[in-house]
Design goal:
The protein is an alpha+beta fold. It has two domains: about 120 residues, no CATH class; about 150 residues, no CATH class. The strands form two sheets. Strands 6-7-8-9-11-10 form a six-stranded antiparallel β-sheet, sandwiched between helices. A hairpin with an 8-residue loop joins β8 and β9. The chain starts with a strand and ends with a helix. About 10% of the residues have low confidence.
Length: about 290
Amino acid sequence: MSDTSVIGVLLVDKADGSQIGFIKFDSSGVMVYQIIKAGMHVFAFKPIDRLLNEQWLKEPLYKKHATSMDENSKLPDEILEQEANNCADFLNSLESPLTLGSYLVKALAVAVPIEVQTIPEVAKKIPPVKKKYKSKSTGSTASNMKLTLSACDPHARKIFEAMVRGWKEAGGTVVSRKPGRIFLILSTKAHAIGKSARRPHNFNLAVLASPRGKQGARIQVTWNLGDTNRSWAYLDCIPEVVAGFEKTAASLPGFVQTYITYLMIDKEFKSLHTKMLLDAMKAVKDTEAKAQ
């Protein structure tokens, strides 16, 4: 997470705009409920917590975005901002009135200055979180990418360089927020079909990870993007193409799937396999762009 802000959803009174509660989206991938209004107890969040767990977030953020965790098991701001916006949209779209305790409230996705210790002081300073994708980094993407590639052996470096080059040529976004990982990001539009696909999203389609500890260089692949039963099914408007992408990935050397899906990059993973993976990713990108 950023050193300067905390991201979350602020619940304000619909009548006068006063702050009632705050849902913090922690970088560890958990949501923390905080009461602002004096005299209330955190138990007032129980109905909202039940709604979020049953109808919006079917599994914790740290599982949903496991492939995006950094080496310190932290989620990047971009994902927290995206999820905070999605959460606020969900809460505001409910047919029944949204309440916290006895207050009728509305939800606002916000970024809170971390140096401010109490939420009531924060509210006057909170700017709304922008929905447009904006990368943050401990250095420039170019320098972080260079350090990531230099940590790989020549074979893995060649594969990663081809992946970066190919994704850029396809019009995709490449970001390296800190040394060790290079994110190949897909930005999608809102669609008329599907469930999660009805809203625009920015997410990692693949992550190039340099060796760390006993793990060698690998490509993490985001899975189940077309499964409408998953809360991260951002491509459930084109499930057949997503299935083709997953079939291709599963056929490649080094394929491993636990709660994370990745391709271990060793001598068995050739340039041909790089092209196969890139072609499958491009097919997803192009088809999504044309889908209604």
